[in-house]
């Protein structure tokens, strides 16, 4: 008896109707530069405003603590107890006391944790993404950028001192402690300003724009303007000088994908300026300066441009990651795309 199928032979595998799962999808969204990082699936128009409230609340607390600390310092230090803060130059004279200089730097360094807190509480991102597109501070790159920035700033500041008549030795009364405060806390002060202006503020403003280039341009101009205004009363060329630095720092952030190069350039610039200023007895005058000759502005722009070129080339040689590909939830029922094994 021959074996037959009453309804015909079965179809071979692969033919006929199949129950297919949805095709695999890539879980990664479009690559976004630093200033567009916060414009992801969680972005809402109100999130930058929430993060602003976090920053303002933190600044209010920090300002209160600073006021109390300054009050205690003035009470305990007879050398500054007679300083009249209501007169012109009074604030600059107060900051020649090492502890006052230290407190001011630590107050500005509060920008580091505040920026991370604002991005986390306001935007739902890990604080590490304020540092760079990889979600952390790239310490190796920070070291390389610092060495390069040191060379550029030492040459430019050294030339400016020579053109101004040279180095006249007349150290501040507390020169040793002041220089120690400069070396230990000025990098934190510079980082605090960069995390606040080029970090949180630029990312928050950039998140409002769908086109990353437009967001970067608006964020760069806005943060540079506020950065210059935050330095107080100043003449047009000094304002332009600080605005130009803000623009340069934003360019470095865009080109390198993080704050490291901007922090390095800012910190080295301030350190290289403050150390000789302390040794020549001009610290109070430096804090009260409101004018800058146009020639000095041009020289600063040239030096900053050189720094941008050098740091950008170093970043390209190190092949730094400049954008971040954000993870996005796949459509319901879809399987994630599996990466092929790497060939080694």
Structure description:
The chain is mostly helical and about 350 residues long. The chain has one domain. The chain is built from 11 helices and 2 strands; from the N terminus they run βαααααααααααβ. It has helices at about 45-75, 90-95, 100-110, 110-125, 140-165, 175-205, 210-230, 235-255, 260-280, 285-290, 295-315; strands spanning about 30-35, 325. It has a two-stranded antiparallel sheet. Helix 6 packs across helix 8. The chain is globular, with a radius of gyration of 27 Å. The N and C termini lie far apart (about 60 Å).
So what's the overall shape? globular
Radius of gyration: 27 Å
Regions with little confidence, pLDDT below 50 for 5+ residues: 23-27, 328-332, 334-344
Structural class label? mainly alpha
Task: Note the beta-strand portion.
Answer: under 5%
Averaging pLDDT over every residue, what do you get? 88
SSE order = EHHHHHHHHHHHE
What's the tally of helices? 11
- Biggest sheet overview: 2 strands, antiparallel
Taken together, the total number of domains comes to: 1
Q: Roughly how much helix do the residues carry, as a percent range?
A: 55-70%
First-last Cα distance: 59 Å
Protein name: CAAX prenyl protease 2/Lysostaphin resistance protein A-like domain-containing protein
Domain CAAX prenyl protease 2/Lysostaphin resistance protein A-like: 177-272
Transmembrane segments: 49-76, 96-120, 141-163, 208-230, 236-254, 291-311
Keywords: Membrane, Transmembrane, Transmembrane helix
């Amino acid at each position: 008896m021959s074996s037959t199928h009453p309804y015909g032979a079965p179809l071979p595998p692969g033919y006929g109707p199949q129950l297919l799962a949805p095709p695999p999808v890539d879980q990664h969204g479009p690559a976004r530069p630093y200033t567009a990082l916060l414009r992801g699936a969680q972005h809402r128009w109100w999130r930058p405003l929430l993060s602003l409230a976090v920053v303002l609340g933190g600044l209010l607390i920090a300002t209160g603590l600073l006021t109390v600390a300054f009050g205690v310092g003035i009470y305990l230090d007879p050398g500054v107890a007679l300083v009249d803060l209501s007169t012109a130059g009074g604030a600059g004279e107060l900051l020649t006391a090492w502890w006052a200089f230290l407190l001011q730097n630590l107050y500005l360094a509060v920008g580091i944790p505040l920026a991370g807190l604002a991005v986390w509480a306001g935007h739902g991102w890990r604080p590490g993404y304020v540092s760079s597109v990889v979600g952390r501070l790239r310490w190796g790159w920070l070291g390389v950028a610092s060495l390069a920035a040191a060379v550029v700033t030492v040459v430019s500041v050294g030339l400016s001192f020579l053109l101004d008549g040279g180095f006249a030795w007349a150290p501040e009364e507390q020169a040793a402690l002041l220089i120690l405060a400069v070396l230990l806390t000025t990098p934190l002060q510079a980082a605090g300003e960069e995390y606040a202006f080029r970090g949180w503020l630029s990312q928050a403003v950039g998140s409002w724009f769908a086109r990353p280039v437009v967001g970067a341009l608006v964020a760069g101009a806005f943060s540079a303007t506020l950065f210059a205004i935050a330095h107080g009363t100043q003449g047009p060329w000094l304002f332009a000088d600080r605005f130009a630095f803000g623009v340069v720092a934003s360019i470095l952030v865009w080109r390198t994908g993080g704050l490291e190069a901007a922090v390095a350039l800012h910190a080295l610039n301030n350190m290289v300026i403050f150390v000789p200023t302390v040794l020549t007895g001009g610290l109070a005058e430096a804090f009260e300066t409101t004018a800058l000759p146009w020639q000095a502005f041009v020289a600063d722009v040239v030096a900053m441009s050189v720094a941008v070129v050098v740091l950008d080339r170093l970043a390209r040689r190190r092949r730094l990651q400049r954008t971040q590909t954000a993870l996005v939830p796949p459509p319901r029922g879809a399987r994630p795309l599996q990466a092929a094994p790497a060939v080694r």
